[in-house]
Specification:
Rossmann fold, 2 domains, 11 helices, 16% strand, seven-stranded mixed sheet
Length: 268
C-alpha cells in the first residue's frame, strides 16, 4: 500500500506515525521543529487521512505498509516515532526490521494487551467513540457544528470531539460531509488495535538491545502506568521512560515544549 506522506527538511530521516483517528496533519508542528536538523516523513496510516482504505487493519498489515514505505523512499536507517496505535506499529516494525532503526520513540502507549491487564477503559472508550461516528447520518448534516453537537451528546469529552472533527471533510462530488477515516473497518478491528503488539508478542524477540528506545508518557494518561514499567524494561532493558507533567494522551499538543525537550534530549 502506498501511504500518503508529508516530508520536509534534510539529513537523517525521522518517520512519524500517528495514532488512532489521527493523521500526519496532527504532527505538522513537531515535524516542522524536527526538520531544522532532520528529514522528517509524516505518514497517514491505512484507513486514515489521505492514505488508501482497506478491509484489513492489523498491526501486521501496518508494519508491512511501513516496510514498503521505507523501500519506496530508499530509507536505510531512520529514527521512528509513533504515537498510540502508531507507537504499536513502530514497535512492531522496529522488532522485525531492526536494520532500519536508528532510534525508536514510543509516545504514550505500552507493549501490552489492554484487555488482559485489567485496563479495559481504552476499549470501552474507543468502542463508544466509533459507535457514535458510525451512527451519524451525514445526509442530514449541513455544518460541522451539527457534527459537533451530535458527537457531544454521545461522547463526554470535549477534547476528543474536537480531535475527531479534524476528520470531517466535504466530499467534492456530492458535497456531503463525510469521515476521512474508514470508520466501519476501524470498528470491526478494534479488538486487534487494543490487544495487538503485546508483551506475549515480544516473547521470541527479547531482549531488544539493537537500538536506543525512549518511551514518553503523559502524567495524566492511563495508557502507560507504573506497573507497565517492568514489562517495558523486560523487552527493552535499556529503554528510557520520560513522563511529561500536566499532560494526557495527546501530550505533544498539550505540552509541546516539554515534549520537544524530551525528544531533543534523546536525539542528542
Amino acid at each position: 500500500m502506498k501511504l500518503f506522506y508529508r516530508v520536509e527538511g534534510t539529513g537523517t530521516p525521522i518517520v512519524i506515525i500517528h495514532g488512532l483517528y489521527g493523521s500526519s496533519d496532527n504532527w505538522l508542528t513537531v515535524a516542522k521543529k524536527l526538520s531544522a536538523r532532520y528529514q522528517v516523513f509524516s505518514v497517514d496510516q491505512r484507513n486514515h487521512g489521505r492514505s488508501p482504505n482497506s478491509e484489513v487493519h492489523t498491526f501486521e498489515a501496518m508494519k508491512n505498509d511501513l516496510a514498503e514505505f521505507f523501500e519506496q523512499h530508499k530509507i536505510g536507517k531512520a529514527i521512528v516515532m509513533g504515537h498510540s496505535m502508531g507507537g504499536k506499529t513502530a514497535m512492531n516494525f522496529a522488532a522485525d526490521y531492526p536494520e532500519h532503526i536508528e532510534k525508536l520513540i514510543v509516545v504514550d502507549i505500552a507493549p501490552k494487551d489492554y484487555f488482559l491487564l485489567n485496563d479495559e477503559s481504552q476499549y470501552y472508550l474507543h468502542n463508544n467513540i466509533l459507535r457514535a461516528m458510525l451512527e451519524i447520518d451525514f445526509s442530514k448534516i449541513e455544518s460541522r457544528k451539527q457534527v459537533e453537537i451530535f458527537l457531544l451528546e454521545r461522547i463526554d469529552n470535549v477534547q476528543i470531539v474536537q480531535f475527531l472533527l479534524k476528520n470531517v471533510h466535504r466530499n467534492k462530488e456530492n458535497h456531503q460531509f463525510e469521515w476521512l477515516l474508514n470508520v466501519p473497518v476501524l470498528y470491526d478491528n478494534l479488538d486487534e488495535i487494543i490487544k495487538g503488539v503485546n508483551a506475549r508478542w515480544f516473547d521470541d524477540r527479547i531482549p531488544i538491545l539493537s537500538y536506543p528506545v525512549l518511551f514518553i508518557k503523559g502524567a495524566n494518561s492511563n495508557y502507560i502506568l507504573p506497573n507497565d514499567y517492568p514489562s517495558i524494561c523486560r523487552i527493552y532493558p535499556e529503554a528510557k521512560i520520560v513522563e511529561i507533567p500536566d499532560a494526557g494522551h495527546w501530550l505533544h499538543a498539550e505540552q509541546p515544549q516539554l515534549f520537544m525537550d524530551a525528544v531533543w534530549e534523546f536525539l542528542r
